[in-house]
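Sequence only, no structure available. Ideas?
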Amino acid sequence: MSKTIKLAIVLIFIFIIGTFFLSLNKNAEYDTKYLVGKKISTVELKSFYNNDYLTNEDFNKNDFILINFWASWCSPCILEHPILMQLSEEKKIDILGINFKDKKNNADKFLKDLGNPYDYLAKDELGKQSIIFGIYGIPESILIDSNYTILKKFVGPLNIDDLNLIKSIVK
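Reply:
I predicted one. Tokens follow.
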């Protein structure tokens, strides 16, 4: 009986060590390059303002859409907001803002205080929609064309270089 217990303990210990060893050898770098060039097949997002849904048909106004995941509690989102405000002045691009795990009144205040750069607003209250887009943290943005092909993914807050790159792609 004691030999069986000792053997079980040794096997559990070997399993744990093996699991740690395999985990340490994995690439921990966050890489979303595989998304570029892929198509977003179906868009169905809950509207920020009501219980309606935004779908592909709602986004056919322009050649490009920047999908931006943001929240009022996200301090890097405050840093990128002036960039989004500048992008909102571009004629050939629409900006879809997806409010991520946020309270509606806080998000409303955020947009009232800083301005609303978004042509469309959706909400992802539980964070499930963000997974479909390959979002692991916020802010993150995805530039797509009119065929819903991902042209570029931006991890972290947009900066002036990103603004210039987006403008050059859109023109």
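The chain has a mean pLDDT of 87.
Hope that gets you unstuck.
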